[in-house]
Amino acid sequence: MVQTSEDIRLLNEKIKHASGFVTRINDELGKVIVGQQVMIERLLIGLLSNGHVLLEGVPGLAKTLAIKSLAQAVHADFSRIQFTPDLLPADVVGTMTYNMAKNEFMVRKGPIFSNFILADEINRAPAKVQSALLEAMQERQVTIGETSYKLVEPFLVLATQNPIEQEGTYPLPEAQVDRFMLKVVVDYPSKQEEQLIIRQNTLGLNFPPINSVASTSEIMTAKELVRQVYLDEKVENYILDIVFATRFPDQYNLQKLKPLIGFGGSPRASINLALAAKAYAFLNNRAYVIPEDVRGISKDVLRHRIGLTYEAEAENVGVEQIINEILRVVNVP
Asked: Could you tell me if 105 and 98 are in contact, meaning their C-beta atoms sit under 8 angstroms apart?
């Protein structure tokens, strides 16, 4: 559907009116989380664009606190699943139990039947459990016995993993990691931010409670508006060029990257980059996507979708360097 300038102007007004909850959520999360604005912004992008988020970072960077606080700020159901090596798929999705009093089998739904799912340390659970969760993420339904149950909306899986510990872990296969819209690498706070964290935690101050400042209906309305955000054909082609450069670097004057990339982004990368850019524009109160939106979110969309060769590892070249080089060379509209 062709959008006129008047359509975009009207949509812009709708977005400004409907995005008020974003400021309220940021204010609430700011009560307990110091810094980490990029992580919070990425969580909101996942929420608004119907995509799941994988957070990777060392322990103690407020990953779990951020997700739990976001669930409290949005008036929605929240479940936390602590992934362990002895976890079973039924512990996540649910199972059939026998009721002796009624002489019949009954469905006991698992914690997956919530709006927000925190999959804590997802790489600690074996492949069967990971597959059960990832199937629910993709299909947005769960089959228990012979019956399929639709999952509630909004439905968002926020998973965390610790990159430094390998013992007793089951790394997510590339094909399964691809189902996460964003992979966010959480970094250390700045020196000033950490000083404030020390003061808050050593003075014995009670953190103020997180209030519910947004409803699920507001989130659903915002998700509809995100889909309507205008994506010009030139920006669309820019997204395609970035993704295709990960597959065929030699076609974009990036011959030196060809031996370093084992495989590039799938069509899911293109779809998610477009959706994430639209959500990024929404968060900035805009009804249209600009190239800076694409560049701003591209690392989080692509970093888990590019496979490196042994040559890249031998030369100590990381995914971030490859994405930076692609963004530097690909023509910006």
From this structure: yes
